[in-house]
Amino acid sequence: MMERIDFTGCRKIPGRAYNGANGKKIAVEYDGNAYMLKFPPSGARKPTTMSYTNSCVSEHIASSIFNLLGVRAQETLLGTYQVGAKRKVVCACKDFTADGMRFFDFCSIKNTILDSESDGSGTELQDILEALEKQQYVDPAMLTEHFWNMFVVDALLGNFDRHNGNWGFLYDDVSGEACVAPVFDCGSCLLPQADEKVMKEVLSDVNALNARIYQFPTSAIKQNGRKINYYDFLTGMEYEGCKKAVRGIVQGTDMEKIRAFLGGVPYISELQKEFYGRYIEARYDKILKPALKMSGNDSC
C-alpha cells in the first residue's frame, strides 16, 4: 500500500499559477520538491452521480502506467488536502520546470510552422505530422516516435483529450537545447466520470464494456475532420510509425505489473481497482492486440 500523504500543511509556493479547465490547482513544496496539486473537478453538469469526478485518480494511474510502459511521464502522488470541512483526494504532479527549464506546448511550436495553413490548435492528424517533421526544436524522427508512442498509450488508457496544449517541449535558455517534456495532463483517461453504477455495469455487462472500447472514448485528434476512433484507426494501420509504436507498447505491457500497481493505489475502492484493471486489460486485448496483428507482427 502506497503512503497516505496529507498536503494540507505544505508550504504554498508564491508566484506560480496554472491554467486549464480540469479542476483547481495550486503549487506547494513537498519533500523538498515543487508540486502542482490538482483538485478534483465538480461533477455538476456532467453525466455522473459523483460530487467530484475521478480525474485526479485517473491522472495518477495513467501517468504511472505511461512510466511503467517506458514512455516518460510526470511523477505523481495521490494525497489529500483539507478545504474547509471537506477533505479532498488530490493529485500532486512534480514540477518538471523547477530546474529552470521553460515549457512550450505543441500548440505554440506548431504556430512556428509558417508555411502551414493550420493554426497551432488544429488537431487534424496530417497537419500534426507535418508540424512534427518541420519543427526545428528537437530531432523530427525522435519527436514523431514520441508522438506515436503517446498516441498508442492514450489508446490503451482511453484518453479523450490529448490536444496540442497538453504536451510539448522543455527548453534550456542557458544551453539553447530542447527536449520532449514528460507526458502530463492524463486526467481524461480511464473514464473519469464513471460512478459506481457505471463501473458495476461495465464489469458485469460485456456490451457496456464493448461500447467503451469500440465506440468511445475517441481521440481528440482528428482525421478528415472527425475525431479518431482508436480501434478503427489502429486496426487500419496506415502509418509505419504507428505500427512501430504498437509493437513496442504491446511488447512492453505487463498486465500483472499493472494489476499489482493498481492494488497499491491509495484512496480508491476495491471496485475501482477491479474496474481500472478490467478496463485496461480489455482495451489491451481488444484494441492493441488486434492492431499488433494488423501491423504484420503478432509474435509479441
Automatic annotation (TrEMBL):
Keywords: Kinase, Transferase. Residues 24-193 form the HipA-like C-terminal domain. It comes from the Bacteria. The keyword Kinase applies. GO terms for molecular function: kinase activity. This is Cell translocating kinase A-like protein. The lineage of its organism: Bacteria, Bacillati, Bacillota, Clostridia, Lachnospirales.
